[in-house]
Design goal:
This protein is α/β, with parallel strands linked by helices and 524 residues long. It folds into 2 domains: 103 residues; 376 residues, Alpha/Beta hydrolase fold, catalytic domain (Rossmann fold). Helices cover 41% and strands 16% of the residues. It is built from 19 helices and 14 strands. The longest helix is centred in the middle third of the chain and has 28 residues. It is elongated, with a radius of gyration of 26 Å.
Length: 524
């Protein structure tokens, strides 16, 4: 069922909402009695029990509290003596029920579009604290914008093909879901609404068809190809569930990293602490220090890329040695992964992260959705916008091939010769590229999309004779590469420019089709 041409309401929650509203409507129209109180009690119990707490389905539960108070007052007012008071109580009660119905329509409990039909497999899930070695050596490591310490683990989610029947698992990790909603509202909502994180607690009701610690399906002869996914600013492993689960259903092992640079809403650490989103860097932008702001973002990209590469090494290590956590769950990746068929993928900040990481450990391909090219450190920016490939271009590419804001990478050394050598090695020589842009960004020529499109049209994008591709998702907005537009009421999403007139479910599917078609093309 699709509501308003773009959202999929949770049918069971709709039924629970209707039952509660009907029960209270019946109760306020009846004289106070044991039966009416039993009906109200049942309605209240059903909605709170089914939603899990008062805030997950606040559109029903919040109006229900004053409604119960008003109905309790009826017990102390003889209707034959104070009929006008009873009528006032009835009117206010009816108004609360009407308000609840309106709020439930305006803020429906929704779910993601089905993903099973997009592949031949079901999806298994395992959350890990993956042992890694990460040493951040940037001269900016002492700033508050990155985590400057050595890290011995990374928080990752692995999605993988399985033939076991799926269960319904929580879309958001239960132990971090409340903080997740709080940080999302704090950094993304209009200022007056930021304290009210319960407004998106309905996301905690979402379930996705998958199974924790399911048995890995039998791999192809060379093992499963592996995709390493880097989330965007404000994103997380959960926020890209549609795209990542769909790829796992098609036979890829998909590893999603929760970055610790402060860009994720919340990251659960192995020691039990929670790392919250840190956007103090925005003070530079608001103070008019745009160049410093871009430099800080570029430094964060370098840090994120180093995290991603540490995870690549850690996951590929699972191909020949397992972890106690995996042994306990009966899950084994040994000799199941194709280490020669790995891909880096990401959206926005994550797209820049994937492109930068590819400079230092080239994968088979990079799949970048609306990559934040302006946040690429110098060597990867000059590598992507390779001036040697712009000789016959008629597009103004000066900013990307010679200008920009220079940042020192976490991978750079003090040896200038090494830096120059790194810059001269073109990303196009080693890695197939899928650069997929929203119409929103492409129409504004953001992130050098016009320059990249020109390279594609002149057949100089990626390796010579390769299968690199540049594409535009028409009618799409930047955030539609994530799940956000499938979860946000359309009347809000369209008003604030989060999505356009297209059904966001259709947009998400087209993004997946373009991505998977590119990957299939690489397989031959």
């Amino acid at each position: 069922m699709v509501l308003w041409g773009g959202l999929r309401p949770i049918i069971s929650q709709v039924v629970a909402d209707v039952f509660t509203l009907f029960a209270f409507s019946n109760a306020i129209a009846s004289k106070p009695s044991n039966r009416s109180w039993a009906l109200k009690g049942a309605a209240a119990g059903v909605t709170i029990a089914y939603s899990g707490n008062l805030t997950n389905r606040w559109t029903v539960n919040f109006p229900m509290i004053p409604l119960i108070i008003l109905q309790t007052l009826r017990l102390f007012i003889p209707e034959d003596k104070h009929r006008w008071i009873s009528r006032i109580l009835f009117a206010f009660s009816a108004l609360l029920i009407f308000a609840s119905a309106c709020l439930s329509i305006l803020f429906p409990a929704v779910e993601l579009a089905p993903m099973k039909s997009l592949g031949d497999y079901n999806v298994g899930v395992v959350d890990l604290y993956l042992p890694v070695k990460l040493h951040f050596t940037s001269p900016f490591a002492d700033t508050q914008h990155v985590v400057p310490s050595e890290q011995d683990h990374a928080t990752i989610r692995i999605l993988y093909p399985t033939v076991e029947e799926p269960m319904s698992i929580s879309y958001l990790r239960p132990h971090t879901s409340e903080v997740y909603c709080e940080e999302n509202m704090k950094h993304s909502a209009p200022p007056p609404l930021r304290p009210y994180s319960w407004m998106i607690h309905g996301w905690r009701l979402i379930q996705v068809p998958a199974k924790h610690h399911a048995t890995l399906a039998s791999p192809p002869d060379n093992g499963f190809p592996v995709i390493f996914y880097s989330h965007g600013l404000g994103g997380s492993a959960e926020m890209y569930a549609y795209q990542t689960h769909a790829l796992a259903a098609q036979g890829y092992v998909v590893v999603v990293l929760d970055h610790t640079d402060g860009s994720a809403p919340v990251v659960s650490r192995k020691d039990g602490t929670l790392l919250r989103r840190n956007e103090t860097i925005l003070e530079q932008w608001f103070n008019g220090l745009q160049d410093e702001y871009r430099l800080s973002r570029q430094t964060m990209t370098a840090y994120r890329a180093q995290e991603l590469l540490a995870v690549v090494e850690g996951v590929l290590r699972l191909n020949y040695e397992t972890l106690p956590e995996l042994e306990e769950s009966g899950l084994d990746f040994r000799n199941q992964l194709n280490s020669a068929d790995i891909h880096y993928m990401g959206h926005s900040f994550g797209g820049a992260t994937a492109l930068h990481a590819a400079k230092y450990r080239p994968p088979r391909s990079v799949l970048a959705h609306d990559p934040a090219s302006d946040w690429l450190p110098t060597e990867s920016r000059l590598s992507l916008f390779d001036v040697g490939r712009m000789k016959e271009s008629t597009v103004n590419h000066t900013y990307w091939t010679r200008g920009g804001t220079v940042a020192v990478s976490a991978m750079e050394t003090e040896d200038n010769d090494e830096i120059e050598k790194s810059v001269t090695l073109s990303l196009h020589d080693t890695t197939e590229l899928l650069l997929l842009f929203s119409e929103e960004w492409y129409s504004k020529k953001w992130s050098g999309s016009d320059v990249l499109k020109d390279m594609h049209d002149r057949k100089v994008l990626g390796p010579v004779g390769g299968k690199s591709h540049f594409g535009v998702i028409h009618g799409a907005f930047h955030q539609e590469f994530s799940d956000a537009c499938m979860l946000t009421p359309l009347w809000i999403a369209r008003e604030v420019g989060l999505t356009g007139l297209r059904n966001p479910l259709d947009t998400a599917k087209e993004i997946h089709v373009e991505t998977s078609s590119f990957l299939r093309g690489l397989q031959g």
